[in-house]
Specification:
The complex is a heterodimer. By secondary structure, chain A is of the alpha+beta class. Helices cover 51% and strands 15% of the residues of chain A. Chain A is elongated. The chains are: A alpha+beta, B mainly alpha. Chains A and B meet through helix 8, helix 12, helix 22 and helix 24 of A and helix 14, helix 15, helix 17, helix 20 and helix 21 of B.
Chain lengths: 715, 581
C-alpha cells in the first residue's frame, strides 16, 4: 500500500496484531519421525565428498580414519609403547569418540535440515499436478497438464479447481482458499485490476465462481517451487558473516594443526633429555604422550569443533525460524541483514494503525446541532459498506439518528478517486460526505457558503491525529466527522524495544503533517514523512543508505517494487502484486507488515547464536589445555599444572574428548532455538552474553571434564 | 627491596607521563599540522621528496604502500650488502677487519632491515666503524621509520583516512621524530659518559701485569646507542649490548635507555586516540599492554629477587638475589625491568644475560615475544594491538546481534582473513616449524644447555626472529668465527650456518607478511562506508570490551604456545623448585 487517500476504500486486509507467539504458526508440518530421518541423514553425511565442505569437522573425520588405523596396529607409525594391547584399547576409544563427534555434528545439521524438509514436504503435497483448461488463441479450450503451462498462457479456473500455476486474474471474481501456503483458513477474494487482489498462487484452490488467469511463471519457477527449494536448504548459500566465521575457524584449525604437528619433535627432544636424567621409564612414558592417536586427540580437543559442528545448523535453523513466522526469505543473507537493520520504513495504514479508521465524533458547524449532523451523516453513509462507513452509521445511530426509508427514493453515490466523496441522493436531497476540500467544492458548486468554523473543526480533528471528513446536505455543510486512526495495540512498546536496540522507525503516510505528527507521537515512531508519495519512499531509503544505514521496508503494490528492491530488507505481502513479491527478498504469507519487527529480532538472534557459540568454543580451549598437557607430560615435572587433579593422561584425554563430543548434541537445542533475545542495548547484551558464553565457556568444561574423569572407569 | 620496586615504578611512571606529549607530537607531524621544526626541516623534506621524484600528496593504496616498502627495503638491503661485503677497504676501519662469512652478512642484513637486530656476531670484532654507523646505524633509522610509517598508515586506515604516501611518511618519521629525539638523546648519553669517537681501540697495561696489554674497544657508540633504543632496534655496538659499560654505564643512562625503548610504541596508541578523536579508547587500549607489562615485570622481578631455590638451599639461605649474568650496577629490579621492556617492545637490547635469569623470567620474556603487543614493535606493535581488537570485535561482536563493526566499519570476510592470518597464523609457523626442525636434528642445534632450558633457547631464538625482537636467550652456537678468527684459520661452523639461514626466514616472514596484511587491512577498512553508531552498536571504548580484548589476546595469542611454555620455562621452574637437576 502506498497511496493513502483519506477515503473509505482501503482494501481490507487481515492484520493480526497481538502477541508474537500467536502469530507463529507453521502450515501443517509433519514433524513425526524427524529424528529418525536426521539420524539416517547424519550417516549419509559421512560421505567424504559432503564432509569436506566443513573444514573443521573434516579434520576430525580424518582423525577418525587415522586413529582407526592405529587401533588396528598401534605401532603403525613407529613403536610408541611396549603395551600394545593397552595402547590399542586407548586408540580404539579415541577413534570411537571422534567418530561420534563427527556424527553429532552431522546430526545437528540434519535435524535443522529435516525441519525445513518437513515444511517443504507440506508445501509439496499441494503441488500435485492438475489438469488445466488452457484457452488457445482461437478461443477454444484445451485440457493440458499444469506442468505444460508456460508464462503468458491463459487458463480458465472454475469453483473447486486447483489453480494450476502462479498468475494474474484478468477476468472474473472469486474466492480462493490459500490455506495451503498461508495456513490462514479464511478465503481471499480475487479480482482483476486491483493490484493487490489480482495475483493468485499455484496450488491454492478456487472456492467459488470462475476466474480467467494469465500465467506468470514457467513450470518449476513458481512461487511454491522457489519456497520449497529455499526451506529445504537446496539453494542455501553461506551468508557473509558465516563465511567470515568459517575463515576464522579454518585459521584456528590450522594454528592448532601447527601446534600439534610440531609437538612430537619437541616431545622427543625432551624425552631424550629425560632419558639421560630420569631414566628410560620416564622417557618412554613421555614418548607415549606424543603417539599419533593422542596427538590427534589433542588436535580435535583444541580446534573449534563446537561451533564448527553447529555453524550450519544455526544458519538453517535461522531460515526455519523465519519460516515459522510464515515468512519466506529468498536468501539467508536477507535474514542476516535483518539483524543489521538500522531503519525501518513503515507505512502508517495497515502497519502502524489498523487498516480501518472508525468514526469517533461529529463536530457540528454552521450552527447545526449534533443530532442533525448525525442524521445527515447517517443518510450520506447509507450505501457505504466500508468499515469507515459502517462505523459512521453506528455512531449516528448511537446518537439517536434514524432513517425511515419507506416510500422514499434512495440512490447511492459511489466513491471515486476523482470526486473523493460518496453519498446518497434521497428524495432529491443530496447527502454527501468526503474529503473536506471535496465537500467545500461541492457546496460552492451548489451555491452554498463555506463557514469559517469548518476550518477550525478540520484543524481540531487533524490535531487529534484523526482524519476529518466533511458532511453536507445540498449546499449546507453540517459538520465534520472525526475518523479516528487506531494505533495497533502493543506497537508503542515494540518501537521502544527497537529504539533500545538502535533501530530507528520512519512512518510514511499520505496524511497531512499535523495528523501524521499526532499518529507518529502516539505510535512512538522516531520520524515520519507526511503527504508521502511512492517516490518519497525510495528517496527515504536512499537517504538513509547514503549514511551507511541498512533499511528494511514493507510493501505490496506494484509501485512499491522499486523501493522494495532498493531496501536492504524488502518484505512483500503475499497479498501483494507479483512485481512487489519479486522485488522483495522476503514474502510474508500472512501479509502482516508488523512482522518486520519480528524479523529484526530473528536476524539478531541468528548472529548472537553464532557469536555466543564461537566465544564458548574458543573459551573451552583453556580447560582442555589444562586437562591434557599437564597429565600428558607429567614426567617433565609439570604435574602441578593438573589443577583438575585428573586421574591419568588416558583418563584426561578421554574425558576431554567425551566433553568435546557431548557438548555438540547438548547445544543442538540452543543452536536450533537460538539464544534468547532481549531487547537491550549492544553493551548490555555484550555484558550478559560474555558472562554466560565467555566466562561460562571458560568454567563449564573444567567442571564437566572433572566430572567425566571421576565417572570414567579408566585408571 | 623497596628501592628496586621504586626504580621500576618511577621508570614506568615516566613512560606514562611522556605518552601524551610524544603521542600528540607524532599526531601533529602526521596530520600535517604545524610543528616547531617545520621552518628548519620542511625544506629538507621537500628537497628529499623532489630528489626521489615523489609528490607528498600522492596517496597510496594498501598494496602500493606495501610495494613501496618492499622496493625501498630491498634497495636499502643491497646498499648495506655492498658496504658489509667490502668493509675491508672502506674507511673508518682502524682494526682492519675483513668481511665476515657470507651467511653472517646475510643474516645481519635481513636482521637489520627488518628492525630486528638479531646479532649472530660480536660487533667490536666483526664490523668496522663504518659498517656500524653508516651501514647498521643507517638501517636503525630507516627500519624504525618504516615501522612508524606502517603504524601511521594503519591508524589512518582504521580511522577512515587515506593511507598516505610511504616515502613521505618515511621521511617525516626520520626528520621529525627519530632524528631530533636521537640528537637530544645522544648528547645526553655523551654527557653521561658514553664514548663517541672514531679512534681505534685503546691499549692499556693490565693492573695485574703491566707488561700485558689489554685492548679496550670503543667507537662512535653514543649516537648508535640512542637510536638502538628509540627505534626498537636493539643491535649493540658491542657484543654484550647494553650490559657493556660503554653502552650503558650508569643508572641515568639505564633509565634513559629504558624510557627511550618504550617511548614511541606507547605514544603511538595516544596518537591513535587523536586520529580517532577518541582519547578514552586510546587510554583504555593503553591499559592492555601496560597491565601485561606491569604483570610481567612483577613476575620476573620477584623471581629474580627470590633467586634460585637450589642455590639458596646450597647457601643455606631463604632468599638470595639471582645476580648471575646481571650487571651489579643495575641489580635485580632494573635488570628484570629492562628484560621485560626490551622483549615486550621488540627492542631486543639487553643489560644482562637472559639465559641466566630465572625460568619465570624466561616465561614472561617468551610470552612477550609471542604476544608482540606489550607495546610491541615500532609502529607494528600498535597495529597488532588494534588488529587484536578487530579480532575481538569479530569473535564477540556477533553476540550483540549485528555484523561486527569497529569505528563504524564492518568487519567482514576480508578483514577476518587478514587479521586472523597475520595475527594467528604467521607467528606459530615462523616459530614452531623451524624450532621443530632444529630440535629433530641435533647437528643443527649447538644447544649449550640441554633439556627444558634448551627447548626455551631454541624457541626463544625463533620467537625473537619472528617477532622482530632480536634479543637472544643465547647459549646457541649461532655465531660464525669473527673475521679476526677466520684470518687465523678458524673454520665456519655448520650450526651457525643453520641458525643464520633459518632465522633469516623467520625474520622475513615475521616482518613482511604481517606488514602487508596490516596495510591491506587498513586499506580495506578505510574504503568502507562508516555506519553511524546507534544504541545497537557495540561500543569498543568501554572497560568491558577492553577486558574482553585482553582475554582474546591471552587466549588466542598465548594459548597457541602453551605446550612449549609448559615444556620449556614452566617445566624448568618446577625442576628448580623440586630440586631436580
Amino acid at each position: 500500500m502506498s497511496q493513502h487517500q483519506p477515503s473509505a476504500t482501503e482494501p481490507q486486509r487481515r492484520s493480526p496484531g497481538g502477541r508474537r507467539d500467536d502469530r507463529r504458526h507453521t502450515p501443517k508440518v509433519n514433524r513425526k519421525g524427524i529424528y529418525q530421518r536426521a539420524l539416517r541423514s547424519a550417516f549419509a553425511k559421512l560421505d567424504p565428498r559432503i564432509a569436506v565442505r566443513n573444514p573443521v569437522m573434516f579434520v576430525v573425520w580424518l582423525g577418525v580414519f587415522v586413529t582407526f588405523l592405529v587401533t588396528l596396529d598401534p605401532n603403525l607409525f613407529g613403536t610408541v609403547s611396549d603395551h600394545v594391547a593397552q595402547q590399542r584399547w586407548l586408540n580404539g576409544i579415541i577413534c570411537l569418540i571422534l567418530f561420534f563427534t563427527v556424527l553429532f555434528a552431522n546430526f545437528a545439521e540434519a535435524v535443522a535440515e529435516g525441519r525445513g524438509k518437513a515444511q517443504a514436504d507440506a508445501l509439496r503435497s499441494t503441488r500435485s499436478d492438475t489438469i488445466a483448461r488452457k484457452i488457445l488463441p482461437d478461443g477454444t479450450v484445451q485440457e493440458v497438464n499444469s506442468t505444460a503451462l508456460r508464462r503468458g498462457d491463459q487458463v480458465r479456473v472454475v469453483a473447486g479447481d486447483m489453480i494450476p500455476a502462479d498468475g494474474e486474474v484478468i477476468q472474473g471474481i472469486g474466492s480462493v482458499d490459500e490455506s495451503a501456503i498461508t495456513g490462514e483458513s479464511a478465503p481471499v477474494l480475487k479480482q482483476p485490476g486491483t493490484d493487490i487482489a489480482s495475483s493468485v498462487t499455484g496450488g491454492t484452490r478456487l472456492l467459488s465462481d470462475e476466474l480467467l488467469i494469465r500465467i506468470t511463471s514457467d513450470p518449476g519457477q513458481g512461487f511454491i517451487d522457489r519456497m520449497i527449494s529455499l526451506v529445504e536448504g537446496a539453494s542455501r548459500t553461506k551468508t557473509p558473516n558465516e563465511i567470515a566465521l568459517t575463515v576464522l575457524l579454518a585459521v584456528l584449525t590450522q594454528v592448532f594443526l601447527i601446534v600439534v604437528a610440531t609437538l612430537p619433535a619437541i616431545a622427543t627432544y625432551i624425552a631424550n633429555f629425560l632419558e639421560t636424567t630420569l631414566g628410560t621409564q620416564a622417557a618412554t612414558q613421555f614418548r607415549s604422550g606424543s603417539s599419533i592417536a593422542i596427538l590427534i586427540a589433542l588436535l580435535v580437543a583444541l580446534i573449534p569443533t563446537t561451533i564448527g559442528g553447529l555453524l550450519s545448523a544455526i544458519g538453517i535453523a535461522g531460515m526455519d525460524r523465519v519460516a515459522q513466522f510464515n515468512v519466506i526469505a529468498t536468501s539467508g543473507r536477507a535474514v542476516e541483514a535483518c539483524g543489521d537493520v538500522n531503519t525501518l520504513v513503515l507505512d502508517k495504514t495497515g502497519t502502524i494503525t489498523l487498516g480501518n479508521r472508525l468514526a469517533d465524533e461529529f463536530i457540528p458547524v454552521n450552527g447545526h446541532a449534533v443530532a442533525d449532523v448525525a442524521q445527515v451523516c447517517l443518510a450520506a453513509s447509507l450505501f457505504d459498506e466500508t468499515p469507515e462507513g459502517r462505523s459512521i452509521v453506528q455512531l449516528a445511530q448511537q446518537l439517536g439518528a434514524s432513517l425511515d426509508l419507506t416510500g422514499k427514493q434512495a440512490e447511492g453515490i459511489e466513491f471515486s478517486a476523482r470526486t473523493r466523496m460518496s453519498g446518497t441522493d434521497l428524495d432529491g436531497a443530496e447527502y454527501r460526505k468526503g474529503a473536506v476540500d471535496a465537500i467545500k467544492g461541492f457546496v460552492r458548486s451548489r451555491g452554498g457558503q463555506v463557514p469559517d468554523t469548518l476550518d477550525q473543526a478540520y484543524e481540531q480533528v487533524s490535531h487529534l491525529g484523526g482524519t476529518p471528513l466533511a458532511a453536507c446536505r445540498g449546499n449546507d455543510i453540517y459538520g465534520v466527522i472525526y475518523l479516528k486512526d487506531i494505533v495497533k495495540p502493543g506497537l508503542r512498546e515494540r518501537f521502544d524495544q527497537l529504539r533500545r536496540m538502535g533501530v530507528k522507525t520512519v512512518m510514511l503516510t499520505g496524511d497531512n503533517r499535523i495528523t501524521a505528527s499526532v499518529i507518529a507521537r502516539e505510535a512512538g515512531v522516531d520520524d515520519f514523512i507526511a503527504e508521502a508519495t511512492p517516490e518519497d519512499k525510495i528517496e527515504v531509503i536512499r537517504t538513509e543508505q547514503a549514511q551507511g544505514k541498512l533499511v528494511a521496508m514493507t510493501g505490496d503494490g506494484t509501485n512499491d517494487a522499486p523501493a522494495l528492491a532498493q531496501a536492504n530488507v524488502g518484505l512483500a505481502m503475499n497479498s501483494g502484486t507479483q512485481a512487489a513479491k519479486e522485488a522483495a527478498n522476503m514474502v510474508d504469507l500472512d501479509s502482516d507488515p508488523t512482522k518486520l519487527i519480528d524479523l529484526v529480532t530473528i536476524g539478531k538472534q541468528l548472529l548472537i547464536t553464532r557469536g555466543a557459540l564461537t566465544t564458548f568454543s574458543v573459551a573451552n580451549d583453556i580447560a582442555k589445555y589444562f586437562a591434557i598437557i599437564p597429565t600428558l607430560f607429567a614426567a617433565a615435572g609439570i604435574g602441578a599444572l593438573n589443577i583438575m587433579q585428573l586421574k591419568s593422561a588416558q583418563s584426561a584425554i578421554v574425558a576431554a574428548l567425551i566433553y568435546n563430543a557431548l557438548i555438540i548434541p547438548a547445544l543442538i537445542p540452543l543452536a536450533l532455538k537460538g539464544v534468547e533475545f532481549r531487547p537491550l542495548t549492544a553493551d548490555q547484551l555484550l555484558r550478559r552474553n560474555i558472562l554466560i558464553y565467555g566466562i561460562g565457556g571458560v568454567i563449564a568444561p573444567f567442571i564437566a571434564i572433572k566430572l567425566i574423569d571421576l565417572i570414567l572407569p579408566i585408571a | 627491596m623497596l628501592q628496586g620496586w621504586l626504580q621500576i615504578g618511577l621508570t614506568l611512571l615516566l613512560v606514562v607521563l611522556i605518552t601524551p606529549v610524544l603521542g600528540r607530537y607524532i599526531a601533529r607531524v602526521f596530520l600535517a599540522q604545524k610543528t616547531r621544526l617545520d621552518p628548519l626541516l620542511a625544506p629538507v623534506d621537500r628537497l628529499l621528496l623532489r630528489l626521489i621524484g615523489v609528490r607528498s600528496q600522492d596517496g597510496m593504496t594498501g598494496w602500493q604502500y606495501a610495494r613501496a616498502i618492499f622496493y625501498s627495503n630491498f634497495a636499502m638491503a643491497l646498499l648495506l650488502a655492498i658496504l658489509l661485503f667490502n668493509q675491508s677497504w672502506l674507511p673508518f676501519n682502524p682494526t682492519r677487519l675483513t668481511s665476515p662469512t657470507w651467511d653472517t652478512n646475510l643474516h645481519t642484513i635481513i636482521s637489520f632491515i627488518t628492525n630486528t637486530n638479531q646479532q649472530h656476531y660480536s660487533g667490536e670484532v666483526t664490523y668496522s666503524y663504518f659498517s656500524q654507523f653508516a651501514g647498521l646505524g643507517y638501517m636503525m633509522f630507516v627500519s624504525a621509520a618504516t615501522g612508524i610509517a606502517v603504524g601511521i598508515a594503519f591508524i589512518r586506515g582504521l580511522t577512515g583516512r587515506p593511507l598516505g604516501n610511504f616515502y613521505h611518511d618515511l621521511i617525516l618519521a626520520i626528520t621529525r621524530i627519530l632524528l631530533p629525539l636521537s640528537i637530544l638523546g645522544a648528547i645526553a648519553l655523551i654527557a653521561a659518559g658514553i664514548p663517541e669517537t672514531l679512534a681505534g681501540p685503546v691499549l692499556v697495561p693490565t693492573l695485574e701485569d703491566p707488561a700485558v696489554q689489554q685492548a679496550i674497544a670503543r667507537g662512535p657508540v653514543a649516537h648508535f646507542e640512542i637510536i638502538k633504543e628509540l627505534g626498537e632496534n636493539g643491535g649493540g655496538f658491542f657484543a654484550i649490548n647494553s650490559a657493556h659499560p660503554f653502552e650503558n654505564p650508569n643508572g641515568f643512562t639505564n633509565l634513559l635507555e629504558t624510557v627511550a625503548i618504550l617511548a614511541i610504541p606507547s605514544a603511538l596508541i595516544y596518537t591513535y586516540g587523536i586520529f580517532a578523536n577518541n582519547l578514552k579508547q586510546a587510554w583504555l587500549v593503553y591499559c592492555i599492554p601496560f597491565a601485561l607489562l606491569v604483570g610481567f615485570v612483577v613476575v620476573s622481578a620477584i623471581a629474580e629477587y627470590n633467586g634460585n631455590p637450589i642455590v639458596n638451599t646450597a647457601l643455606g639461605v631463604n632468599q638470595a638475589v639471582n645476580l648471575e649474568g646481571k650487571e651489579v650496577r643495575f641489580g635485580w629490579a632494573q635488570s628484570a625491568l629492562f628484560a621485560v621492556v626490551t622483549t615486550g617492545s621488540m627492542c631486543g637490547a639487553v643489560t644482562g644475560m637472559v639465559d641466566s635469569m630465572m625460568p619465570l623470567s624466561g616465561l614472561v620474556t617468551l610470552s612477550n615475544l609471542f604476544l608482540q603487543i606489550v607495546f610491541g614493535g615500532q609502529g607494528t606493535g600498535t597495529a597488532y594491538l588494534f588488529a587484536y581488537l578487530i579480532l575481538a570485535v569479530f569473535v564477540t561482536g556477533l553476540m550483540v546481534g549485528r555484523t561486527p563493526e569497529f569505528l563504524g566499519r564492518k568487519i567482514e570476510k576480508q578483514e577476518v582473513v587478514l587479521a586472523s592470518f597475520l595475527i594467528l597464523l604467521v607467528h606459530p609457523i615462523a616459530i614452531l616449524l623451524p624450532s621443530a626442525i632444529a630440535l629433530v636434528f641435533p647437528d643443527f642445534q649447538g644447544i649449550s644447555n640441554p633439556g627444558f632450558h634448551g627447548l626455551s633457547q631454541v624457541i626463544y631464538e625463533y620467537a625473537s626472529a619472528a617477532a622482530n625482537n632480536g634479543s637472544g636467550l643465547e647459549g646457541l652456537a649461532d655465531s660464525q668465527p669473527s673475521p679476526i678468527a677466520l684470518a687465523t684459520g678458524a673454520i665456519p661452523s655448520p650450526t651457525a650456518l643453520w641458525w643464520n639461514l633459518s632465522t633469516s626466514l623467520s625474520l622475513l616472514a615475521g616482518r613482511y607478511i604481517p606488514i602487508t596484511a596490516l596495510l591491506l587491512l587498513a586499506d580495506s577498512l578505510s574504503r568502507k562506508q562508516p555506519v553511524p553508531a546507534t544504541a545497537g552498536t557495540l561500543h569498543t571504548n568501554t572497560t568491558l570490551f577492553t577486558g574482553i580484548t585482553a582475554g582474546v589476546i591471552v587466549i588466542l595469542g598465548a594459548l597457541t604456545f602453551f605446550p612449549v611454555l609448559a615444556l620449556g620455562p614452566i617445566a624448568e621452574a618446577f625442576q628448580l623448585t623440586q630440586g631436580m637437576r
